[in-house]
Amino acid sequence: MKKQYLESGKIVGTHGIKGEVRIDPWCDSPEFLCAFKKLYLDSRGERSIEVKSRPHKNITLAKIKGVDTIEQAELLRGKIVYIDRDDITLGEGVHFVQDLLGLEVKDDENGTVYGKITDVFQTGANDVYEITDDSGKKYLAPVIDEVVTEINVDEGTVLIHPMKGIFDDED
After folding, report:
1. With contact defined as beta carbons under 8 Å apart, do 107 and 160 qualify?
2. What is the pLDDT tens value at each position of the chain, 171 positions in all?
3. Which CATH code, of 3.30.70.260, 3.40.50.720, 2.30.30.240, 2.30.290.10, is assigned to 97-160?
4. Which has the closest alpha carbon to 160: 168, 148, 144, 151?
5. pTM of the model
């Protein structure tokens, strides 16, 4: 089941004396997080905050409505911020990492189950899926068209055409 509210960053400190906070974005970029005018301080969407934010190097600086002093901002340090998935439209073939975690990875030709996605690494050139099998052994698969042939979040599966060396020790 897809989560409605997704972890998207952590308030790591204050900025200046007028109540701005520094958010370490757990998404594609600080700019992505700046697209949201409303963030949430809980995973159920019960504590919303209105924000006006801007990117600054690798973080997001946010002014939260009603937080006007450094002391008020300091009380938010360490809080996780969430986004509502309904507030963004992802492009075709783009998925939230949290929706990929736990998906079953199968061979696109013979249906062999290799394991489940347990992490997604962003390498710059392409993402890499960490796939963990039932025995706990981990494998890494590049997220490229030649390897990942289908992602079906609703069915809970990812079909891949494995390259030599991902799941075996062949040359």
Report:
1. yes
2. 678 999 999 999 999 999 999 999 988 789 989 999 999 999 999 999 999 999 999 999 999 999 999 999 999 999 999 999 999 888 887 888 889 999 999 999 999 999 999 999 888 788 899 999 999 999 999 999 999 999 998 899 999 998 888 887 544
3. 2.30.30.240
4. 148
5. 0.76
